[in-house]
C-alpha cells in the first residue's frame, strides 16, 4: 500500500518505517541538547561570581550586640568588602540594568 502525494511522490510502508524512527530520534536528541544548553546557561547566571567559590555555601552570622548603631550589608555580591557593602552595586546596576542595593540595619534611635 502506498500513499500518493499530489506531486507524484509515493510514500511506501518502508518510507514510514525509516521516517518515524528518524523523527523520534531527532526530537529526542533536540530535547536533550536543549536541556543541556539550558542547564549550562543557568550556571553562568550565578549570583556569587567570585566570593569563596570553593565553599559549598557562604554564610555570615552576626550578633546584634556587635553591630553597633548601623551596618550596611551587600546584596549584589560584588563588594570587595563582602559581606559589607562598598558601593559596588552602583556599577553592577549600571552594567546590568539591575536595581539591587544593600541591606541596612540600624538602631531606631541612630
Ligand atoms: S556593594 Fe553590594 S549591595 Fe552595595
From TrEMBL:
Segments traversing the membrane: 16-37
Gene3D superfamilies: CDGSH iron-sulfur domain, mitoNEET-type
Protein family per UniProt: Belongs to the CISD protein family. CISD2 subfamily.
UniProt name for this protein: Iron-binding zinc finger CDGSH type domain-containing protein
UniProt keyword list: 2Fe-2S, Autophagy, Endoplasmic reticulum, Iron, Iron-sulfur, Membrane, Metal-binding, Mitochondrion, Mitochondrion outer membrane, Transmembrane, Transmembrane helix
Localization per Swiss-Prot or TrEMBL: Endoplasmic reticulum membrane; Mitochondrion outer membrane
Subunit composition and interactions: Homodimer.
Biological process annotations from GO: autophagy; regulation of autophagy
Topology in membrane: Single-pass membrane protein
GO cellular component terms attached to this protein's record: endoplasmic reticulum membrane; mitochondrial outer membrane
Taxonomy of the source species: Eukaryota, Metazoa, Chordata, Craniata, Vertebrata
Organism: Poecilia mexicana
Amino acid at each position: 500500500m502506498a500513499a500518493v502525494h499530489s506531486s507524484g511522490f509515493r510514500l511506501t510502508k518502508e518510507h514510514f518505517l525509516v521516517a518515524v524512527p528518524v523523527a523520534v530520534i531527532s526530537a529526542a536528541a533536540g530535547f536533550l541538547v536543549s536541556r543541556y544548553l539550558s542547564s549550562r546557561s543557568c550556571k553562568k547566571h550565578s549570583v556569587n561570581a567570585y566570593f569563596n567559590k570553593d565553599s559549598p555555601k557562604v554564610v555570615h552570622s552576626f550578633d546584634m550586640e556587635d553591630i553597633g548603631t548601623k551596618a550596611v550589608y551587600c546584596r549584589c555580591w560584588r563588594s570587595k568588602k563582602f559581606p559589607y557593602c562598598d558601593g559596588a552595586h552602583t556599577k553592577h546596576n549600571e552594567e546590568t540594568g539591575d536595581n539591587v542595593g544593600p541591606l541596612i540595619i540600624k538602631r531606631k534611635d541612630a
